[in-house]
Amino acid sequence: MATALDFWPGPLFPGYLISGVVAGVVGVADILIRYKDNPWTAVRTVASILYAAANLAFGVAAFWLALVLDIVKVATLTSPDGHLTVELVKSALTVGFGSIFLLRSVAFKLSIGGKDTNVGPSTIVDALLMACDQQIDRTQAAEKDQKVRAMMAGVSFEKAKGFVPAYCLALLQDNEDRAKRLGQLIASISNVQGLDGNADSQRAYLLGNTLINMFGYDVASKVIAGFKAQLGPETLAKADVKRPPAADLAAPDAAAGDAGPRAANGDAAKAPAPGAGGQAGGAVEAKASPGTAAGLAPPASGRSSH
Questions:
Q1: Which residue of 2, 84, 92, 237 is surrounded by the most CB atoms within 10 Å?
Q2: What are the DSSP calls for 203-214, one per residue?
Q3: Contacts 24+ apart (CB under 8 A), 219-228
């Protein structure tokens, strides 16, 4: 009677390899689909590699179990002269894809604290994916922050929130579900409270992060770049202009107030005097000092004006 070790790995190694690779590739695809903003960076993290390796190992174990339980007939996998057959490839592919569904299956659900909890092999997948989420988010957070700030620099949220998301959806020919979800996210960004005076630019950063998460950095950045080029300077968010202190605001008014009487005196000097010589001399003196009308101090006597 054959034992379990008789099937490991022996001449059936290609079957183990095919089954494991199929399950491992599906694990990598899970990561790529899950992190659309930067999938190739996400798939290189330690947690993602462990997740793909776990899927690969489960595919190998499933093929071994199929041989032990005689689900796959060993006699059909090799020819009389010891060569592998097409049946081996078909059986390995079938077991590999079957292991994917088995690993993600749920035996039953438990209600713990009012929350349904899956019990079964899918618990392993959920735990590994949660670990991937945590590590990938921490790894990409700083890099994404730099990308968002550079991409959305000078973009007004109020001007971009309509056209840019709609154009991204149109480029990808996306479905209504994602369009609805994107609309809800943009509405929530518009309702964010507690922002400072530069709220429009801050909301633009939130919009940029949302676009990267939903469409990926390549699509989002190119659409935003085209949006900036199309509208030019009008797309720039208005910079906050701090109100100057009250003393600074009063200074021009005071200067203008001083200039008023002086200008009036100057006008009075230009008017014909009633004939008194001293009055005419005063008029000439007022006309000879136009600098006082501009608020400039006349040169002191005995000093050079250079």
A1: 92
A2: HHHHHHHHHHHH
A3: 219/168, 219/171, 219/172, 220/151, 220/168, 221/147, 221/151, 223/164, 223/167, 223/168, 223/171, 224/151, 224/152, 224/155, 224/160, 224/164, 225/151, 227/155, 227/160, 227/163, 227/164, 228/154, 228/155
Residue 297 in this model has a pLDDT that exceeds 50: no
Same-domain pairing of 55 and 168: no
Provide the residue count of the chain.
306
Which amino acid does the sequence have at 276?
A: A
Residue keyed to tokens 């618990």 = 123
pLDDT digits over 203-258, tens only? 999 999 999 888 888 899 999 999 988 876 544 444 343 444 444 444 444 444 44
Judge contact between 42 and 136, C-beta under 8 A.
Answer: yes
279 within a domain of the structure (yes/no) = no
- Residue 124 shares a structural domain with residue 156: no
How many helices and strands in the chain, by DSSP H and E?
Answer: 12, 2
Please state the domain count of the chain: 2
Long-range contacts of 115-121 (CB under 8 A, 24+ apart): none
User: How many other CB atoms sit within 10 Å of the CB of residue 214?
Assistant: 20
Which among 29, 14, 160, 6 has a CA at the least distance from the CA of 77? 14
Name the DSSP class of 113.
T
In a domain, 303, yes or no: no
CA angle 116-119-124, nearest 5°? 115
pTM summary value: 0.54
**Higher per-residue confidence, 249 vs 143:** 143
157-196 pLDDT, tens digit each? 999 998 999 998 888 876 778 888 899 999 999 988 878 7
Report d(CA 48, CA 27) in Å as an integer. 9
Evaluate whether residue 192 is within a structural domain.
yes
